[in-house]
Design brief:
The protein has 729 residues and is of the alpha+beta class. It is built from 15 helices and 40 strands. The strands form seven sheets. Strands 5, 6, 7, 8, 11, 12, 14, 15, 18 and 19 form a ten-stranded antiparallel sheet that branches. Strands 1, 2, 3, 4, 9, 10, 13, 16 and 17 form a nine-stranded antiparallel sheet that branches. An eight-stranded parallel sheet has the order 31-30-29-28-24-21-20-32. The longest helix has 18 residues, at 276-293. The chain is globular. Bound molecules: 4-nitrophenyl alpha-D-galactopyranoside. 4-nitrophenyl alpha-D-galactopyranoside is lined by residues 149, 267, 331-332, 369, 431, 473, 515-516, 534.
């Protein structure tokens, strides 16, 4: 990987790679944005001057001093900005950018911006992530309450071609000449951050690598430090992403266990209707499957011969158990109210501690779902402690409306009152599955009593009730914009404090699974993380295509996209949770082709392996499909065409000396595919399409796959053998 050089040129910072790799950033300055009254003000800096470990500059606001630390690392640079308030009054800090370039700046990544493909990471678990071309528009969901639940409410997308905002990091890849540039923040405990890029036909408008400080106050004499920014360039964009992910994981002390868990979750079959009997019936059905899968069992339900003879994997339970017990998770539907997590409803007559014991007696770990950072208005938590909740800034109500809030706002307006009063609890989630009428509110995780409650809650669920796996959902609520008890805390810090309180109560032995969670601040606290939207018993629908801009929300197609585009985070920041693998053939609109595509993506990307069907109703053939998919896990995935497609369609998986290649057709028509085996460094020996068992011929380095149906895939197995060495993708 060619190393970047850095220098000070005309008082600005400049980076450049050597001649063979044409990557250059020139005219970069640090920048601070402060709030003055209702307006935001970007302060210009004086020319940077060299200091012992970097550069220093003053802002146009004469009392603000900026120090930019500029540190070389193997093949990368780290920039970190410190600001010091040398004035006599406090300042409200919106943004600290260690690197900012305006129209006079220069960014080159290979020849011509027209062939750039830019990775846009989403804010939280459910936000879409993919590479964009410069003529594409990144759209937010259409309705306000969906923007609140799927994107960063403080930073709506610009909605114009060439303007992109990528949370935490980005990679810019030139598809013509091959160069790639990676910019990414290495820490997220103190502030959310993003890379903003705005390119017009006449050139660059803005490139900013900036941390969001949410307008917190900087007292006279106080200092504020940005998160460290990592900058590297080269030709191998996937190696850059991997190196960035590894480095962030080290800085934030990511929790990565030995092997991703296997589990069952009630949500995608029973939804909120789940009962105690449903959970027990599935635990028993799973226990029966496991008894049969054991070598001493009488009847072994194993994959078909041709599959088992070529794939070297284990049966679901045998290998899954090496990582600890498989788990049985009671998802949403057990609680007495959203917010009241220590009381259950009448569908669980024996109580949740009893159920955990029964699950454990059946030989599984017990898992439970909760949304610890939200509470609905009727919950005891909210009624007893209204002061534990985030308050709305003026003007926030219409961002996250529900019918009741909307009606009250209109009535207030008609009666001549203030339309959006300050200080009311801010609405966080409008979920029709809970109530059509009113929204849930966001817990203030900077309030010491609320943090104490979270600690006690986690302690009770894990150590008194016996649930070792906690699925923590709707976590973004802790980071919504609003007024908090601690006015000096950023949104990222608020979220982090809430998560840390839960970890501390749950203990080191608990497995915390984040969901609906802004990604960065959770690294080092959670063990698993949902990295995409919910799967669904359908591929996609009008709601997902139109209201959710075809990328952010519930739809199997959208879940598959993120599982592929965020695969590189797996085992570096946590275990990726791709969401559940549904394989049933009733009560679903997913076709067999769609189920096989979901199974192939989940298996080859190696994340958590979670089932969500009524196990005792599954036909044998579908249970075998689960076993088949599981036998393929454990490899290292690469989404080969990550920068070339909306949803990558080539997924290579390296498993010891075996290679697996998923070739997908995510289009709406059946389509013919050929594979250039040379591109994958694969040899011309035996190739089997696993789902059909067909042997495929390699002719002149090509495999003709024929037509792949819409949403379908082919799964190629290249057995160990005479592979040319030293070839990469
Ligand atoms: C339980 C579910 C499942 C699922 C989670 C999460 O209204 N909404 O915007 C909305 C978004 C996501 C969602 C439900 C509602 O799903 O991802 O696995 O646990 O909650 O309610």
């Amino acid at each position: 990987m060619p190393a970047l050089g850095a220098e000070l040129r005309d008082g600005c910072v400049a980076f450049g790679a050597h001649e063979t790799c044409w990557v250059e950033l020139a005219g970069g300055v640090p920048r601070v944005v402060i709030r003055r009254g209702p307006a935001s003000l970007a302060l210009q800096t004086s020319p940077l001057q060299t200091t012992a470990d970097g550069y220093t500059a003053r802002c146009s606001d004469p009392e603000l001093r900026l120090d930019l630390r500029c540190e070389p690392r193997a093949d990368a640079w780290i920039l970190q900005l410190t600001v010091e308030n040398q004035s006599t009054g406090s300042l409200s800090i919106e943004e600290l950018a260690p690197l900012w370039m305006g129209p006079t700046g220069q960014v080159r990544v290979g020849a011509g911006m027209d062939r750039w493909s830019v990775f846009r990471n989403g804010y939280q678990s459910w936000s879409g992530a993919r590479a964009y071309r410069m003529d594409e528009i990144d759209r937010d969901p259409v309705l306000g309450f969906l923007r609140t639940t799927h994107t960063d409410a403080r930073h709506p997308s610009v909605g114009r071609a060439g303007a992109l905002r990528s949370d935490l990091f980005t990679v810019v890849k030139n598809l013509r000449s091959g160069e790639a540039l990676c910019l990414g923040f290495l820490d997220a405990r103190h502030a959310f951050s993003a890379i903003r890029l705005d390119v017009r036909s006449d050139g660059l408008r803005e490139l900013a690598a900036a941390c969001d400080f949410d307008g917190i106050e900087l007292a006279p004499g106080a200092r504020l430090v940005s998160e460290p920014l990592w900058i590297a360039a080269g030709f191998d964009e996937r190696a850059l992403l991997a190196q960035y992910a590894v480095t962030l994981g080290e800085v934030m002390q990511a929790r990565v266990g030995a092997q991703p868990p296997v589990g069952w979750c009630s949500w995608y079959y029973y939804f909120t209707g789940v009962t105690e009997t449903d959970v027990l019936r599935n635990a028993e059905a799973l226990a029966a499957k496991r008894a049969r899968a054991r070598p001493e069992g009488r009847e072994r339900c194993s994959p078909p011969r041709n599959w088992a003879s070529v794939v070297r994997g284990g049966a679901l339970f045998q290998r899954g158990e090496l990582a600890g017990k498989p788990y049985v998770m009671v998802d949403d539907g057990w609680e007495s109210a959203i917010g009241d997590w220590l009381a259950w409803n009448e569908k669980f007559p024996h109580g949740m501690p009893w159920l955990a014991e029964r699950i454990r007696a059946a030989g599984f770990d017990a898992g439970i779902w909760l949304a610890p950072f939200i509470a609905r208005p009727e919950s005891r938590l909210f009624r007893d402690h209204p002061d534990w909740f985030v308050r709305a800034h003026a003007g926030l109500h219409l961002w996250a409306f529900d019918p009741s809030t909307l009606l009250r706002t209109c009535l207030r307006q008609w009666s001549g009152g203030e339309a959006r009063p300050r200080g009311r609890p801010r609405t966080a989630v409008w979920n029709p599955a809970w109530s059509l009428w009113r929204s849930a509110y966001a817990l203030d995780t900077t309030h010491p009593e609320a943090l104490d409650w979270l600690w006690r809650l986690a302690r009770t669920l894990v150590h008194e009730w016996g649930y070792r796996i906690l699925k923590l959902d709707f976590l973004f609520a802790a980071a919504l914009p609003g007024e908090r008890y601690d006015r000096g805390a950023t949104r990222a810090q608020a979220l982090r404090r809430g998560l840390e309180a839960i970890r501390s109560g749950a203990g080191e032995g608990a497995f915390l699974l984040g969901c609906g969670c802004p990604l960065g601040p959770a690294v080092g606290v959670v063990d698993g993380m949902r990295i995409g939207p919910d799967v669904a018993p359908f591929w996609s629908n009008w709601l997902s295509r139109w209201l959710l801009a075809d990328r952010h929300g519930v739809a199997t197609r959208n879940a598959i996209r993120n599982t592929l585009t965020r695969a590189f985070m797996h085992r570096r920041w946590w275990f990726n949770d791709p969401d559940c693998l549904m394989v049933r053939d009733t009560r679903t609109r997913l076709t067999r082709d769609e189920v096989q595509s979901l199974a192939t993506v989940i298996a080859l990307t190696d994340g958590m392996f979670v089932m969500s069907d009524a196990i005792d109703e599954l036909p044998d053939e579908r249970w075998v499909l689960l076993e088949q998919a599981y036998s393929l896990t454990g490899g290292t995935p690469t989404a080969v065409d990550l920068f070339e497609a909306d949803i990558p369609e080539l997924l290579l998986c390296e498993r010891g000396d075996e290679r697996l290649l998923g070739v997908f057709n995510f289009g709406e028509e059946s389509s013919t595919r050929v594979v250039d085996v040379g591109r994958f460094g694969l040899y011309e020996g035996e190739v089997i399409e696993l789902w059909s068992g067909r042997h495929l011929a390699v002719q002149d380095g090509w495999i003709q796959l024929g037509a792949i149906p819409a949403h379908g895939c082919r799964l190629l197995h290249f057995s160990a053998g005479h592979r040319p060495s030293g070839r990469s993708l």
